[in-house]
């Protein structure tokens, strides 16, 4: 199956949106999700995303608040808990 990548902006509780890439196969059936949040550029996870997808998972890579294409201001470790929680709820 072909690996598709879709980029979306995930809304958080305070209105900030985080850039998020979703890797899935073209079948589109429900599957377990592997989430990776990073301040170091989610787009560099293409190979990892393709490997997880080919193994039967949906892979999600997200830029942390205030980094790369995500909105907001980076305050290391300050928002990671709530941002990660909000992302899990969105998933």
How does this structure look, described?
This protein is of the alpha+beta class. Helix content is 22%, strand content 33%. It contains 2 helices and 4 strands, in the order E-E-E-H-E-H. Strands 1-2-4-3 form a 4-stranded mixed β-sheet. Strand 1 (3-11) and strand 2 form a beta hairpin. The two termini are 22 Å apart. The model has no long low-confidence stretch (mean pLDDT 96).
Biggest sheet overview: 4 strands, mixed
**What is the straight-line distance between the termini?**
22 Å
What's the pLDDT, averaged over the residues? 96
- State the helical fraction: 10-25%
Number of strands: 4
Strand content: 25-35%
Shape: elongated
Q: Going across the major beta sheet, what is the strand order?
A: 1-2-4-3
Q: Determine the structural class based on helices, strands and strand pairing.
A: alpha+beta
Radius of gyration: 13 Å
Q: Enumerate how many helices there are, as a single number.
A: 2
* Low-confidence parts: none
SSE order, one letter for each helix or strand: EEEHEH
């Amino acid at each position: 199956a072909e690996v598709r990548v879709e980029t979306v902006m995930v809304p958080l509780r305070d209105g900030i949106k985080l850039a998020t890439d979703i890797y899935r196969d073209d079948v589109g059936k429900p599957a377990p999700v592997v989430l990776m949040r990073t301040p170091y550029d989610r787009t560099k996870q293409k190979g990892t995303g393709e490997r997880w997808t080919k193994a039967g998972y949906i892979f999600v890579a997200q830029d942390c608040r205030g980094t790369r294409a995500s909105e907001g201001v980076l305050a290391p470790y300050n928002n990671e808990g709530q941002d990660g929680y909000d992302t899990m709820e969105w998933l």
